[in-house]
Amino acid sequence: xxxxxxxxxxxxxxxxxxxGSAAAASAAASAAESKLRQRTVADSRDQTCSQLHNGAVxxxxxSSSGQCSLDLWSKKALLKRNDLPRxxxxxxxxxxxxxxxxxxxGCFMSLFYFHNETIxxxxxxxxxxxxxxxxxxxxxxGEISVPVLPWIHLVATVSPWVGSTxxxxxxxxxxxxxxxxxLLHLDMFGIWxxxxxxxxxxxxxxxxxxRNPWERRFCFTxxxxxxxxxxxxxxxxxxxxxxxxxxxxxxxDLLAVLGGFVGxxxxxxxxxxxxxxxxxxxxxxxxxxxxxxxxxLHQGAVLDLVWLSGxxxxxxxxxxxxxxxx
Length: 326
Hints:
Keywords: Membrane, Metal-binding, Receptor, Transmembrane, Transmembrane helix, Zinc
Subcellular location: Membrane
Family: Belongs to the ADIPOR family.
Main location: membrane
Shape: elongated
Pfam family, one: HlyIII
Radius of gyration: 30 Å
Structural class: mainly alpha
Oligomer: single chain
């Protein structure tokens, strides 16, 4: 059969198919167009919009509007817990407000819309920025003559906020579970830096491999016992320190324990599942409480550093001899 004959045969077949086939073809075309609209924005023709949205799924009504706006950054763009990979489904009582998997830029841009990690990022991101920007005002440098220790203290106070902020901001990275675990280890490392030296390695290893919130909280046991022993020594003949710092040391650990238990118990969201997804759930409360705990750590450390600077016995120097009396 010639080429023209084949062409006529094909066109005749379509013509003979009747209205039913035409309707089916139209339906198939509509379905294909709908699927195209459900593709990620990364495949969109609007490259500017693609860079902003970073792979978040666009609904059909948003796609058809032709607008690249903050509509996508509204609650409609957020996911439910069951839509996430299993490694991000760690709190069964937080049901909505989850970000989709995003690349690094998309995770960063999530700073500018509200989701269920926003409060976690703010509560530790603000202290981090405050310390990094105003570190010179945080210590009475003119009254402290002890070398190195003031800088160690500043590193210890900022480290938990750096690790936590990075973890919460990038935890939904599209690189998957391996990336998430690395971020979790960074978060634990930030806390690790603030702990008592004897329990550091044990704590970091156990906390990084904990299988549930309770196991992770109990990883703090040894560092906590070391700090309790140090607090006890302060009142003995072998101890020392500014007496005014003791209350800050006690409050620091009490608040840290309180925050840890609130986070592990997952209250109050356990009592009202799905109602505290974006605000005032246990992790948010824990974040605020531990910031206050580190505030007391800082207050106590400042008092002790000033005390240590004026204590000649601890510094290994001898007091000046008394003036010669004739």
